[in-house]
Write a structure and sequence with these properties.
5 helices, globular, four-stranded mixed sheet, 32% strand, four-stranded antiparallel sheet, 176 residues, 24% helix, alpha+beta
Length: 176
């Protein structure tokens, strides 16, 4: 989840360190490419959930059975956005940018990437939860619209093909 925060607060960092994570691991995760919540919006999961669940949202079920909660937060409340998004459709980039696409493994699967000066700002968020007997387990959250999981060879053939097809039409943006 750290990859989706711009920064974390001191208390979260101390909690991670006391749970056995090295500072270098924390910094590496924070530096990974991806959609990121702005630090002025949220620096930890608790703060994130408190803010996003105050607003109306839509709940759907993903291809793998996880619950997807998403919504756009009001621009009147967050005029500068809540974060950046790093996944866009191929239709959202220019013809010149199409020529600059390169493929890079993302969690073990080669996906289209594009270097950009700045990631687009968004007011949209997505939460992914899994049903467990006690209620829900938090899987991840990110700024931006929901996306299909990255294809994984552990998926069923139908899930793998659906995810692969989705990622053939989408790409990751990486800041130069």
């Amino acid at each position: 989840m750290l990859r989706h925060f711009e920064t974390i607060d001191k208390a979260t960092q101390e909690e991670l360190l006391s749970n056995g994570y090295a500072l270098s691991q924390i910094q590496q995760e924070l530096s990974l490419t991806g959609s990121k919540f702005f630090s002025h919006f949220a620096n930890d999961i608790k703060e994130l959930l408190e803010k996003v669940l105050q607003h109306p949202y839509q709940k759907t079920t993903g291809i793998n059975g996880n619950h997807i909660i998403e919504s756009g937060l009001p621009k009147t409340e967050y005029p500068n956005g809540i974060g950046t998004k790093a996944v866009v459709t191929l239709d959202e980039i220019t013809k010149d940018q199409h020529a600059q696409i390169f493929y890079e493994k993302n969690r073990g699967f080669p996906l289209a990437h594009l270097l950009v000066d700045n990631l687009p700002i968004t007011n949209h968020f997505t939460l992914i939860l899994k049903s467990i007997p006690e209620g829900y387990a938090f899987i991840t959250a990110f700024s931006g619209e929901s996306a299909m999981p990255i294809p994984d060879y552990k998926m069923t053939n139908a899930q793998f093909e659906a995810c692969k097809k989705y990622w053939e039409l989408h790409l990751f943006l990486k800041k130069k």
